[in-house]
Amino acid sequence: MIVNESGGIPNRLFFRLFQTGNILQRQVQNEMGISAVQWAVLGALSREGFEGGTSFNQLKEYLYVSRQSLDGVLKRMERDGHVVRLEDPEDRRARLVKLTDQGREFWTQLQNIIAEFYQQSLQGFSFDDSVSFLHLLKKLQHDMSRISLPSGNNDRQDRQAVKGI
């Protein structure tokens, strides 16, 4: 892919991705009354096989969120009665995050709203468009997870100087 001086298509692509993430967060908050991360946590913990909970680290890695971000979201969800953190029976030092019965009921109640959210969001997409888009997003995630820019303080300072920071 060719990048010109202004960044070209890659710049526009990543800017649209940024905007799309922000629209998702705003619309989920406005329409469902929860944050996009809370939605993701509820979805992750409601999956088959996770009835007993999952470790904090596994949840963090699955959602690709920071420790601080996930901890703040879980504190709000605990306050709302949707999740609990329990001692891991296999490792008493570790904690498991588990959906409560109230959280599972809340998730069930959201399903019709989520289905409508999906329908309205993807109304301009054919089935084939959706499958292609899913495939392309997965490719992007894979490639982004393998990024390895020059590291170290000198290189970081050089990059910041180039950016004018």
Short description:
Helices cover 65% and strands 10% of the residues.
Give a structural overview:
It contains 7 helices and 3 strands, in the order ααβααββααα. The protein is mainly alpha-helical and 165 residues long. Strands 1-3-2 form a 3-stranded antiparallel beta sheet. Strand 2 and strand 3 form a beta hairpin. The longest helix has 25 residues, at 8-32. The protein is globular, with a radius of gyration of 19 Å. It starts with 7 loop residues before the first helix and ends with a helix. The mean pLDDT is 90.
Key words describing this protein structure:
single chain; about 160 residues; mainly alpha; 3-stranded antiparallel β-sheet; 7 helices; 3 strands; globular
Please write the string of helix (H) and strand (E) elements: HHEHHEEHHH
Strand order of the largest sheet: 1-3-2
Fraction in helix: 55-70%
- The overall average pLDDT, rounded, is 90
Helices and strands, with pairings:
Blueprint: H1 8-32, H2 36-45, E1 54-55, H3 56-63, H4 67-79, E2 83-88, E3 91-99, H5 101-121, H6 127-145, H7 153-163
Antiparallel strand pairs: 1-3, 2-3
